[in-house]
Amino acid sequence: MAMSAEKNVLDILAEHADQLSGVPGSDVQKLQVSEQHEELCSLTRLAEQVKGVLAAERPSPHFRQRLGSELTEMAQRRWRQDLLIETPSSRKELLIGAAIGSAVALAGGVVYLLRMQTQDRSQRVSQVQT
Question: Model-level pTM?
Answer without folding.
Answer: 0.30
